Automatic annotation (TrEMBL):
Domain Carboxymuconolactone decarboxylase-like: 42-125, 168-252
Tagged with keyword Kinase: no
Signal peptide extent: 1-18
Organism: Bradyrhizobium valentinum
Name recorded for this polypeptide: 4-carboxymuconolactone decarboxylase
Keyword field contains Glycosyltransferase: no
A Gene Ontology molecular function term of the record: peroxiredoxin activity
InterPro entries registered for this protein in UniProt: 4CMD/NDH-1_regulator, AhpD-like, CMD-like
Short name of one Pfam family: CMD
Keywords: Signal
Length: 259
């Protein structure tokens, strides 16, 4: 698996490409290693030596998890130029097309409708190139995962008390659409859905929401070490300031949880 990930990442930076890579009509061509080196030799060195040579090989997160985190961050930040390459890598690393579909849908709620819509063309191109058809993406509706009635009732009551008089529409949609529908869709495991959410929050600097969602992620099976490794990975894809802004919140959550 690591060999596949390294090989795919190698292609992301256009190593040894004799021609400009093919891209969808109207899209910007992917940069080759020579392109990068001609402008920023140090950037190319960091890409090869650190991102490819170390980051994606670290054991703290599986290649599949790193792909989910990276795809979520790129969509959250509306950075779709490299998205086709990372979607291909995600599939090579075991992320199913149905899960990619759910990641995009989930991020519409956590990073905005337009960001999700902008991810559709590159994802559609990847699906077409891989002969991924409608039978491999989840239906619009269907059976759902079981709801934790007690936990959801407590959450809904707390939000209603805080904001029900100020923004009843937000409270209503949060309960009816977000937590009683979106989060119960079976096409993406709760742990992966939490991983996507936390990654998006870090990527967009929304630190106020991290405490709740990181606790939820760890309730859903994310390990302490994985939560810490997530920040190290996202530093490269969202910038050091976003990672360090989230670090105190992540530290606080981890330290307060029982071992």
């Amino acid at each position: 698996m690591r060999v596949l990930a390294a090989a795919a990442l190698f292609c992301l930076f256009g190593q040894a490409m004799a021609q400009t890579p093919t891209t969808p009509e109207g899209a910007k061509p992917m940069l080759t290693s020579q392109d990068i080196r001609a402008v920023a030799p140090a950037l190319e060195r960091y890409a090869q030596g650190i991102v490819l040579g170390d980051l994606w090989k670290r054991p703290g997160l599986s290649p599949r998890d790193r792909s989910i985190v990276t795809v979520a961050a790129l969509i959250a930040r509306d950075q779709t130029v490299e998205l086709p390459n990372y979607l291909n890598l995600a599939i090579d690393n075991g992320v199913k097309p149905a899960e990619i579909s759910e990641i995009i849908t989930h991020l519409a709620f956590y990073t905005g409708w337009a960001n999700a819509m902008n991810a559709i063309p590159p994802a559609r191109e990847v699906f077409a190139n891989r002969n991924i058809g409608a039978d491999q993406v989840p239906p619009a509706s269907g059976p759902q995962l079981p709801l934790d009635e007690a936990a959801e009732s407590q959450r809904a009551s707390r939000v209603e008390q805080q904001f029900g008089q100020i923004t009843p529409s937000l409270v209503q949609y949060t309960t009816d659409v977000l937590f009683r529908d979106l989060w119960l869709r079976p096409g993406l495991a709760p742990r992966d859905r939490s991983l996507v959410t936390v990654s998006a929050l870090v990527a967009t600097g929304q630190v106020a929401q991290i405490t709740y969602h990181l606790n939820r992620a760890m309730d859903n099976g994310l390990k302490r070490e994985e939560a810490g490794e997530l920040l190290g990975h996202l530093a490269f894809y969202t910038g050091w300031p976003n990672a360090f802004s989230a670090a105190p919140v992540v530290k606080d959550v981890i330290e307060k949880r029982p071992r």
